[in-house]
Amino acid sequence: MIAVAITCWPALAAGPVYDVDMYALMSGTCRNVNIAGRNYTCKAVAYFHTQSGRSEFTVVLDDPADSSHIVSFSGESVGRTQDNLFELAVDRMLLKSKDRPRVDGLPSPLVEMSTGSCRQIGSFVTRQVSSISCAATDRNGKTYELSFESDGSPMTLRKLRQSALPSERRRARQIAQLECRLKARAAQILPRDTPAYVIRCLGEDDGKTDDQQ
User: pTM of whole model > 0.85?
Assistant: First the structure.
């Protein structure tokens, strides 16, 4: 595990977020990723926004020992003081790993209440991003840092229209599809091969037994 439960403020076990209404995948290089004192490289960086108003910058870590090692800088308060500047006040870190329990087949993140911020130079409107930097400290004093630089490619942005409230199973399926697409980006799967990769990825999750989850 990369985080330790806090004695005074126990770490919360949060279920999957089903109300994602927008996500963006960025292409580039992580210049620095430090999670609770350990340095990593990253496979992918993405931004998620939910209908409840929460935003997350999510990083898929390049961890040979854990292919499910994913961290998110999460918060509800955002600021746009300039057209090409997006700032997020971080109030919690979401930590996923292979050892976390699964809910509806998806890893349930460990939630560490934190303080910090993320700063994105770029615009979701133009789909151009220059850099993303995040820094946060949890209540146990552990620090989390991200420094990402774009390679100049436009971000892949999708807005999801939520009409009638879907069933729990369907909502879980939608989130599984998003996570499989993020894994495809991390694995550098070509666009023409992405649909087949996502289908295989979803099949692997469906094939897991309760004991495996």
Answer: no
